[in-house]
Amino acid sequence: MPDVMSSSRLIGVGVGPGDPELVTVKGVNALRAADVVVVPVMDTGERGRAEATVLHYVPAEKVLRVVFALNERTDRARREAAWDAAGAKVAELLAAHEVVAFATIGDPNVYSTFTYLALTIGELVPGTVVETVPGITAMQDLAARSGAVLTEGTEPLTLVPVTAGSAVLKDALAGPGTVVAYKFGRQAAEVAEALRETGRIEDAVWGSALGLPEESIRPAVELDGEPLPYLSTLIAPARREGGRGGKL
């Protein structure tokens, strides 16, 4: 491999759930220091949430959209082809630039597109140094905006992507501690049913478009079965008894 490839750096930068003020100082510095900032989109005519956040801190000419199969879950061949094409594009960028940043909503190590890209680049450009800059997650933002406490004392915290099926969520809700559900908008009816069956709906809260003008944060008891935005987040706090410090 040419030296320029082996010395290149790919940095996954978490840009938070949507509110541009929730990008860390380190994240902003990484975006500004990069030669090019890649943002994932489902098609080239769309501005995604990551791109909208990034544009608060870097000029548009430095930002490059790369198409990923972000919503492809049934056609594996199509998904793999899209990933290969995206990886090849980023590999080209790494051959031409010393530092390429990849902006991802939330955190690059939590259910992120960046994980798959890093694996692909590891195969295509073996010498690339891969780094990540952590970002604020949707569950942290929703907890702050709703007043929900994620953990106390010895409580566990379980994070479930509802794309894995409502049965996985139901199992988590039957256990101890706080349960957070991601990507449940299309299965809102099943989520509401699981909350009711496990007696967890009264204290639960959901939110979408956090930090954006269309933000919605509501009690889970108001879930009426209608589909919600795909990137909705749910927090079902732990059952807490015994007053302050009861879980210590």
Describe this structure in words.
38% of the residues are buried. The protein is elongated, with a radius of gyration of 20 Å. The protein has 248 residues and is α/β, with parallel strands linked by helices. Helix content is 32%, strand content 20%. The model is unreliable at 1-6 (pLDDT under 50). It starts with a helix and ends in a 12-residue tail after the last strand. The protein has helices at 3-6, 25-33, 49-54, 76-96, 113-124, 138-146, 166-173, 188-197; strands at 9-14, 36-41, 63-67, 99-104, 129-133, 157-161, 178-182, 205-208, 216-219, 233-236. α4 crosses α5 (113-124).
Provide a compact summary of the structure:
With 248 residues, the chain is of the alpha/beta class. The chain is built from 8 helices and 10 strands.
Count all strands and give the number: 10
Largest sheet: 5 strands, parallel
Strand order of the largest sheet: 3-2-4-1-5
Instruction: Let me know the average pLDDT.
Output: 89
Supply the helix-strand structural class: alpha/beta
Outline the low-pLDDT stretches. 1-6
Number of distinct helices: 8
> What is the succession of H and E elements?
HEHEHEHEHEHEHEHEEE
The percent of residues in helical segments reads 25-40%
Radius of gyration, taken over Cα atoms and rounded to an integer in Å = 20 Å
Distance between the termini: 55 Å
General form: elongated
Strand content: 15-25%
